[in-house]
Amino acid sequence: MEEKLKKLVKKLTLENKTVSTMESCTGGGLVNALTNIEGASEIIKFSAVTYANEYKIKMGVSKEIIDKYTVYSKQVAEAMAKAIAEFANSNYGVGITGKLNRVDHYNLNGNDNEVFISIYDNDNKSFDTFNFVVNKCIRKDNKEAIVMEVLTHLVDC
What we know:
157 residues, alpha/beta, Maf protein, globular
């Protein structure tokens, strides 16, 4: 993972581009991994951990989108990615939402262990959105698998 992180930091630094994240189920795992790399301060603009729907809404995700598609959907991941990129005026915004190894009593819809990820390219106004199914028994391992998947997509942006 460290090599992908270094590659991303180097790539975005050379391109003079920045990234911001709005993470839910990963609890800031992506931005935490990035900040372990020297030079990350050059590329990271802002990060928010928004477990609760009310904070997704406060950060710019439409309540109507959450109500219509559920918090565990590609539409919400896209809204998170776009909202954080626009809020921080960063080149890329990453939105991550999903369930990891547990039932969410506040949001009963959605499949267990399915994660929705969106990377918003603020310069081109386009999305790279995908879902990812995690299968590890340990939550930390699932979070690391998600971060690796996001890094693979970000390095290719």
